[in-house]
Amino acid sequence: MTMQAQEMQKAPTPAWLWSAGVAAFVVVWWLVYGQLIPASEWVVAQLPVDRASHTGDALAFFFYDVPKVMMLLTLIVFAMGVVRSFFSPEKTRALLSGKREGVGNVLSASLGILTPFCSCSAVPLFIGFVSAGVPLGVTFSFLIAAPMVNEVALVLLVGLVGWQVAATYLVFGLSIAIVAGFVIGKLNLEGWLQPWVRDIHAGASAPSDIESARLTWVARYKLGLEAVREIFGRVWMWIILGIGLGALIHGYVPQDLMVRIMGAEAWWSVPVAVAMGIPMYTNAAGVIPIVEALLGKGAALGTVLAFMMAVIALSLPEMIILRQVLTLKLIAVFIGVVGGGILAVGFLFNFLF
After folding, report:
1. Where are the alpha helices (DSSP H) in the chain?
2. How many CA atoms, within 13 angstroms, populate the side-chain half-sphere of residue 312?
3. Whose CA is closest to 195, among 185, 187, 204?
4. Which letter does DSSP use for residue 192 in this model?
5. Which of 122, 141, 209, 232 has the fewest CB atoms lying closer than 10 Å?
6. Has residue 97 got a pLDDT over 50?
């Protein structure tokens, strides 16, 4: 091989080709994402199970949620990796820390309302926020609000229990997300992130102001791909495990037992309902039919809403995935702060309604 041929072989891919490739990827991603539900139904239809059975319901849930969360993780982490290349750690912290943190909690919780994510689907964006240097408390406000209070839940609640109850739920759910995130932020628990996440959050590999200004678009795309490779490689197995557990529980919800507990007048019905909700996993739209069935059988409104909030904001599958990002101590703080807020909402709704 001649020297000229070797040089031609080593010629870098032009920036326009990289940009075209990224644009094509986004288009294909969007087209595939829109077909996940029919694809999951088709896969289950090929299996020797009854779609209307508990097993069929669990399998359909699994085959839909796994690729959905994987795709969200890939796209969001890549995008945040590219965005992060424009901001040095110093610039990011100056923009989002200090006195602006309270505003950041409000903004991130409001963003959570507008994103119809279940708890596991919100984790990729949570990871992206953390990797971009966003304060920990601000990211938690999003992580709490995204599954617990979104437009799907609110519309369904209006039809089920009326706009007054739905509006009250919105206010209290949003307040829990803002206050819980603010409290976690004030505790300065960044040291309780997993070491590899802590290094990213601290900006161990982020460019300086001068370096970020000099980076080409090709270099930024490569940083995005590197972020996907590192983060996806660490959490993909736990995503499958968490969603698999959630799908199993999703297909076998013991409604009769829950009605007996949630219909009780005893004070302990609210904390027991929350404890029952944590191991389960579904999104807001998926839990509303359960809520409707429980209310129709005489369960107390506050107890049912506390159960609903626990299912979609404190699910066990979510905790399994978050374990790869957070230490057990930080997960315990998260459960304690959010769980306390949910208990307060349950008791208050039982008192008011």
Report:
1. 3-9, 15-33, 36-45, 54-84, 89-96, 101-114, 119-131, 136-148, 151-161, 163-186, 195-201, 209-214, 217-250, 255-262, 269-277, 284-296, 301-313, 316-322, 328-352
2. 28
3. 204
4. G
5. 209
6. no
